Amino acid sequence: MKRAERDWESHLTETPLGTGGFSMGTIRKVKERIAVQERRKKKKIVPLAAAALVAVILAAVVFRSEIGSTLASWNKPEPEKKPVISETETTTLKIGYLSGADDFMRKYGSPFVIRHPMARFSYSANVPKMGSLEDYREWIENEEPDLVQIPLGYLDELSSAGLLTDLDALLLRDGIDEQNFYEPVRRTIREAGAGKLYGMADKFSAYGLYYNRELFAEFGIPEPSGSLTWEETMGLAARFAGSEKNGDPVYGLSFGYRPGLSLNAVTVGQSLGLGTYAPDGLRSTLSSKAWTGLWSSFVQGYRDGWIGGEQGMEQGKSYPMKELYKLDPFLNGRSAMTFQPSDYGSNLAGAREMIGFDDEWALLPAPALDESARSGGQAMEIGYVFAIPSRSSQPDAAWELLKYILSPEQTERQTRTAPYALYTVKAETVDDSGPQDAYYEARYDTSLSLSSLKQKADPAYQALLNLAYKSGQERERDLLNGSLGVEPFLEQLDREAEETLRTLAAEKETRP
Q: Which Gene3D superfamilies has this protein been placed in (predicted)?
């Protein structure tokens, strides 16, 4: 439509009904009516405001005493909260600690008493150090301690039985952010408690792959990085085959002063959470693909000389630390890599002081079983947790002690004497960077960590693992000279393991 055809509206004396449906005349009358009503409202506001003011004055006169007492109560300071642990009366906490009274006082008790001079400790009798779940259940029920150390693997069953206090409510009550606890530790313990926090550990441990940067540079081999699989680790170690330094052999991989083929194959398999028997409890899995691959690579490495197989420490013999350091190829600058637990840093520091080891080294996470396991992460070990039994007669005082055990102040104190331990709570003033950083930056698999803990508490698992170690030790020479292949060895091991399983099952049936 052209504009000229639409300009008919401009000739009208009033707006057309299409604009809101009202003419300008009608709109003007409505505005006048609204203005009159507004003037009437304003006239009513003045007397209403005056009446309200009079009412307030009268109320102040009538309720003068009540108002005064209310204001006084607002200004009155709140009464001081009574301390959980008395400053004048003795508070005695009953402790269930696996390493005994002296160790507890040295690590936790003495510094806590400095802060709470009236705190005292008694110690629960008959702590089941290597006990079963039922042993721990009976111990907690009968002894009724205030703070206990229990295996993480038993946390679910003991909490389900109503024997442990849920720490979530205490954290919330005291405004403590659980983010202060190292996340993988917190996540693992929470999963062990079916989603709730029934305990906490002040330390954890893990395995790592230490490597000598100077040896990699000297032999022109690129340094490892990231997270390796065991196949990649063995392949890298094999590149050092036949290497020497000052006339002595240089190894691609070693295992400290415990160099045996059987011991180290079993140790690595256990660290990876490899099973030893099927879910039915009758069939051995010691000849599985994973175990076969692991034993095969170890046999090859020892046979070809790129895994350190020198004479290590003799069982039952006592050694000064300096002599032990001399038996470790890595601490003597003759091993490119070594697979060790997280406290190996103390050996590195000791070797530097006692035998002059000053090579530059670095640390990677523990190698994964395979590519699929690499993305999930490695296992961490949390052997025991501190927990407050639900029958504790002094749960708040026990919680004060546990809060101190898990405090940055306590971590800082322990770090001064044990700098290579892995702590759940970060110290406030300790340098952020350190040799253990790789352990805190590693990825941890919660399910793998928990399944490994349950395996260690399983008598059948341990029996078969011990059988594999002893059988491998007895047949090590045949395995290394080639007269016995890995597959026939593991098939025979399966038969022996299944006989062991049948014996264990029969013993269990006859047990009262």
A: Periplasmic binding protein-like II
- Looking from the CA of 321 toward its CB, the CA atoms found within 13 Å total 11
Residue 107 confidence (pLDDT): 96
Separation CA 305–CA 26 (nearest Å) = 107
Neighbours of 370 (CB within 10 A): 14
Q: What is the CA radius of gyration of the chain?
A: 37
Question: DSSP string covering 182-203, please?
Answer: -HHHHHHHHHHTTTS---B-SE
Examine the pLDDT at 48 and tell me if it is beyond 80: no
Q: Which tokens hold the place of 153?
A: 């693997």
Q: Are 342 and 369 in contact (CB under 8 A)?
A: no
Please say whether the beta carbons of 344 and 112 come within 8 A. no
Residue partners of 219: CB distance under 8 A and separation at least 6: 239, 240, 243, 250, 336
Distance of alpha carbon 276 from alpha carbon 285, whole angstroms = 5
Residue 307 and residue 254 in contact, taking contact as beta carbons nearer than 8 Å: yes
Pairing state between β 422-423 and 147-151: unpaired
Q: Between the CA of residue 67 and those of 77, 78, 94, 378, 417, what are the distances in Å?
A: 18, 19, 51, 67, 61
Between the two ends of the chain, the Cα-to-Cα distance in Å is 103
Give the pTM.
0.81
Residue 495 is encoded by which pair of tokens? 């038969």
Helix (H, G, I), strand (E, B) or coil at 229: strand
DSSP string for residues in 135-166: HHHHHHHHH--SEEEEEGGGHHHHHHTT-B--
Amino acid letter, residue 12:
L
Per-residue pLDDT tens for 80-134?
567 889 999 999 999 999 999 999 999 999 999 999 999 999 999 889 988 889 9
- Distance, in Å, from the CA atom of 204 to the CA atom of 341, rounded to the nearest integer, reads 11
Q: Could you name the CATH architecture of 207-380+444-510?
A: 3-Layer(aba) Sandwich (3.40)
Please state the length of the chain. Answer: 512
Taking alpha carbons only, the member of 171, 205, 212 closest to residue 188 is 205
At position 276, the amino acid (one-letter code) is T
Question: Where in the chain are all domains bearing CATH 3.40.190.10?
Answer: 91-204+381-441, 207-380+444-510
The answer to whether domain 91-204+381-441 has CATH 3.40.190.10 is yes
